[in-house]
Design a protein that fits this description.
The chain is an alpha+beta fold. The protein contains twelve helices and twelve strands. The strands form three sheets. Strands 4, 5, 6, 7, 8 and 9 form a six-stranded antiparallel beta sheet that branches. A hairpin with a 5-residue loop joins strand 7 (355-361) and strand 8. Helix 2 (23-46) packs antiparallel against helix 3 (53-75), helix 4 (84-98) crosses helix 5 and helix 5 (107-123) packs antiparallel against helix 7 (145-166).
Length: 442
């Protein structure tokens, strides 16, 4: 057991590094702001809180820990030359890119950008500026790009797993203006995770391994803390959240696997390094572009049929959730009355204030019958969020989010009744009166 003590020592040092560095806490704070902004967005559109930002942040942190443990185990067989300068370069690239798109808060984009910059600096090998620019240039040239790109690939394989496991729970309904100004219902899928990585780094006089590291070998190794962020965001108006999550997870898995193969080839043949770096960035962008292209060429799902009301979403812990009503289904009859509008739904429910009988058409168009007692103070629509009927007061303007928008909690909401664009206030709307509408807290 003599080999165990050096590894326990380096593990303790790496964990201490993780907790004293600010980068992991910055990642958690940014993610908390993302989900708090999502909460404000839901309150603006639906006047009810569908998800707790604290719960969403905790899910993201736990998911990040799962990915971090998986990738840290893989890194034991990888080996990487990383320094504090490498960590600073990664975070500087990540925050710089997030100034343009919040979805650039992702290791793949940072690794791709750094790989291209390193390639350019190596091409201009005779250029060596002085001062702080010289320090930055040296740090970029010293980056272990093969290891960073392999890490990016493995991280996205782990991300695909987390999207599949947590994707539906992170989905948030939206109301936004589609073609020709018509109101469209859909879902926003925002996935961000703070990843606490422990990376194996070759050093002189470090602990020994009973195997040889894949990318770089040495006589001794130590563990280094590398806290990073992963992120992926999409909007769907043509699929149910569960189906969109399945498709996105499969595509992320293919992307991560392809990038892993290309990065390993680049580690053994350096001319492929810039190709792998470009693939990390462009491949991720292609996933986002193709998803948007696919959405534009598919019919909206959340539109009301000729008879009945299409369900956009269901409030957690509401009567609708207890009854088993799901997004994408259709409320056909309420207390024996065919409903075509929220007003007709309200009148049908008032026919018997203490009890309701529902006929709901499922995703296959088959009827299922439900009944339940109604209690005072419950949501006036049983907790069902309807697809838009173009009479809603607020809608979102879909536009790219930046780091500034997240930090300032700015919403892009349009007051439709007077056709004026306004910035959504940060304060939550006042609580509804008893018997009118109930906010469900998780």
């Amino acid at each position: 057991m003599e080999w165990a003590w050096p590894w326990l020592t380096t593990l303790g040092e790496a964990l201490l590094q993780l907790f004293i560095q600010p980068f992991y806490y910055i990642a958690v704070i940014l993610i908390a702001l993302v989900y708090h902004r999502q909460l404000l967005q839901e309150r603006k559109l639906f006047h009810v809180r569908l998800q707790s930002s604290i719960t969403q942040t905790i899910r993201a942190v736990l998911g990040g820990i799962v990915i971090g443990v998986m990738v840290s185990v893989v890194s034991l067989f990888l080996g990487a030359h990383l320094t504090l300068g490498s960590l600073i370069c990664i975070w500087a690239a990540t925050l710089f890119l997030a100034l343009f798109r919040i979805r650039y808060l992702c290791f793949a984009y940072a690794a791709g950008l750094l790989g291209v910059l390193q390639f350019g600096l190596n091409m201009a090998s005779g250029w060596q500026p002085a001062g702080w620019m010289g320090s930055v240039t040296e740090a970029l040239r010293a980056l272990d790009m093969p290891a960073l790109l392999v890490l990016a690939a493995v991280l996205h394989i782990g991300e695909a797993l987390m999207v599949r496991m947590q994707g539906v729970s992170m989905a948030s309904p939206l109301l936004f203006e589609g073609k020709r100004g018509k109101l469209v219902g859909g879902y926003q899928l925002q996935h961000f995770w703070p990843i606490p990585l422990l990376i194996l780094v070759p050093v002189t006089g470090g602990a020994t391994l009973p195997w040889t590291a894949l990318i770089s070998g040495g006589n001794g190794y130590m563990l280094v803390a590398l806290p990073i962020m992963l992120g992926f965001g999409e909007v769907t108006q043509s699929m149910l959240p569960g189906k969109k999550v399945q498709i996105s997870a499969k595509r992320l898995l293919l992307y991560g696997t392809g990038l892993l193969v290309l990065s390993l080839l680049a580690a053994w043949w350096s001319p492929l390094m810039v190709v792998a770096a470009l693939a990390a960035f462009i491949g991720h962008e292609f996933l986002v572009w193709y998803s948007g292209f696919e959405e534009q060429n598919r019919s909206p799902l959340f539109v009301h049929p000729e008879h009945g009301l299409k369900v956009l979403g269901v409030i957690p812990d509401s009567p609708a959730e207890e009854l088993g009503i799901e997004a994408g289904e259709t409320l056909y009859k309420v207390n024996g009355v065919l409903v075509h509008s929220p007003e007709q739904l309200h009148r049908a429910l008032r026919m018997n204030p203490a009890f309701c009988k529902l006929e709901v058409r499922n995703h296959q168009g088959e009827s299922k019958f439900m009944q339940r007692a109604i209690y005072e103070g419950e949501h006036h629509q049983l907790g069902v969020l309807m697809a838009p009927d173009n009479h809603e007061a607020w809608a979102l303007r879909l536009r790219p989010l930046t780091l500034f928008h997240i930090v300032s909690l700015k919403l892009f909401a349009r007051r439709r009744k007077d056709q004026l664009d306004v910035e959504a206030p940060l304060a939550l709307p006042p609580a509804p009166a008893a018997g009118e509408q109930r906010s469900v807290e998780m």
